[in-house]
């Protein structure tokens, strides 16, 4: 084992589909080919988006496709204390503010916060209205060397939310807190998330933590250019077709699984032996099935 720790972090808003299975696969191949550990984290931070039973289905599908993870899966729903701790650290540094302004308010005012908003003070919001906690962004963009796409520059969302008005922790805070606490060294995920990376980099820096390596691969897109997702009704994968599913996905990145292979686990092992980061073509925005 090396110091590499990777992860697959599905949101249980539905069962796995080919798009999310590709994220599991590429993060797994990169971790195992680096003799690293590979963790699974269920991102069940947003109960309204969650689908009953999806977490169990996701884990079963991963097992059915031959994936083996190191350590028990973690669940974001059990980790609020960690998120609160990081939020307090950010507050102490004045790196966030309590903001009663809605997205719509900010849009209408051209980004100007309402009178009494915590944006203008270090003592929080002075109105009784419910508030979200937002990050005090200090720069407009971040650059990073993506280990799959090469040099990247992307904009930050000004004042992105860390804790929502409904008091749920926002994705950016939860994901960075978990990745730090779990010692994740490599975040390998779809290019639909390149827009989140600058906000996550800003959080690492402000929390005084070394950022991991980021690698983004082209996600599977439909003919309309939209990412295959639960929202556009991508069908759930069926573990009885696990070998075919893996062959199809490996085929997208140019790994041809030999016909002598009959078990999903063997196909994964074969993939690990073949994997190279240069199999990912940074010039394409998405794969098509
Ligand atoms: N939970 C996120 C998703 O399913 C992925 C988060 C990440 O990989 O950083 O889209």
What is the general shape? elongated
Mean pLDDT: 95
Please report the number of helical segments. Answer: 8
Low-confidence stretches: none
Helix content: 25-40%
Query: Biggest sheet, strands in spatial order?
Result: 1-2-3
The count of DSSP E runs of length 2 or more, i.e. the number of strands, is 12
Radius of gyration, taken over Cα atoms and rounded to an integer in Å: 20 Å
Summarize the helix and strand pattern as letters: EHEHEHEHEEEEHEHEEHHE
User: What ligand species are in this complex?
Assistant: glutamic acid
Percent strand equals: 15-25%
N-C termini distance: 34 Å
Sheet with the most strands, sense and barrel status: 3 strands, parallel
Structural class: alpha/beta
List keywords for this structure.
alpha/beta; 12 strands; three-stranded antiparallel sheet; elongated; 31% helix; 289 residues; binds glutamic acid
